[in-house]
Amino acid sequence: MRYLPAVAALLLLPLVPATAQAAPSGTFYVTGVRTGLNVAQSGTGLALHRPKGNEDHQQWRLSDGRFENTDSPGQCITRQLTMGSCSQADAVHEFRQFGDQWEFFGLGGETRWYLTPVQNQTSPMPQDPRLDQMTFLTAHNAYANGVDGGFAPPFVNLAKNQTRGIVQQLSDGVRGFMLDIHQTPDGAVLCHNSCTLVSKPVALNVDVQRIVDFLKNNRGEIVTVFLEDYVDANTLRAELRKVRGLGDVLYRAEGVQQNGWPTRSQMVDSGKRLIIFTDHGKDGREDSGVLYQKDWTVENHWSMGSGLGSSDWSCYSRWDDKPLTATGSFQPLFVMNHFRDVPFSSTATTDNSKLVNRAQQFCQPAARKKPNFLAVDLYHLGDAQGAVSTLNSYVYRP
């Protein structure tokens, strides 16, 4: 077993007392285990803020048990949780270690902390990586492309998240597809918010069939589908039954909780290379082979802001009760959303050209794991595929 649940970890890794001199040294983010929030300098005191790289006084230089803020040389965290001179005695903290967690002070209800190096720690990508070590280019609202069919009322159709059809997306290297499905008399249909007034709507089974056919013809590829799911379980089951050959390629995550994610060669050899996640709560639809996403992944908040102007690069969980740092008996896959409220070509080009920077300097340390899915609008702009290639060149080690 590679990963241990938190309780088991505490039983197997007893408290290791450490003097201040034995405490870690280097420059770190200090992240709450429970919330995933970072300790930030706030005036003369401290606060817990959403992880925001080096933009919010969240980087701390540790030396001899002292936390010196990198933006305020000579100023350290005191035992009273204020900022004071690093030379004073109460700037020295005592550390206790619990596996990969640390205890040194309490703040905002947090008592356990991760110390994540600001400088990325990496090792070379293995020849046969596990699924949780790989990164895949992912199309946000992949169906909203204006090529395969209608996806919204005419005035909304103008704001396409993608401009190429699903078949072209597959050919271009897209391996993750975010699809919204809604309940209609005809079954599960791909629409944005509502299917009312949509001309030429596309059924879910049509796009899944395209993906299955691609996998049948490209036996070394792995594809993941993320369903924003507004249909009932019976409708979803009926829709998936229409897809020819789905059972031959559908991956059901059997054994992952006990053994961790499979390697690429294991998935290829088994032929099970299509993962389908749903964000719908458990109601029996899992027996059709879909996986409840929250059980298997972590995901950051979906929007960086409006379509134009400055953006918010902070990286925090979309789920209040599951921080990006969450782990357990296996490593959750990390879905990194990197898009705005409304897609504009100029903005997407700029944002997608900065994917590597945000992934490595903001989201990777915030999650203590490498993004496995880079979800973007207008994926063909700004070299998103180049960012995927960069992340696929290494394994991240927090």
Automatic annotation (TrEMBL):
Database matches in Gene3D superfamilies: Phosphatidylinositol (PI) phosphodiesterase
Keyword terms of this UniProt record: Signal
Molecular function, one GO term: phosphoric diester hydrolase activity
The protein's name: Phospholipase
TM regions (residue ranges): none
Any single GO BP term: lipid metabolic process
Entry-linked Pfam families: PI-PLC_cat
Signal peptide: 1-22
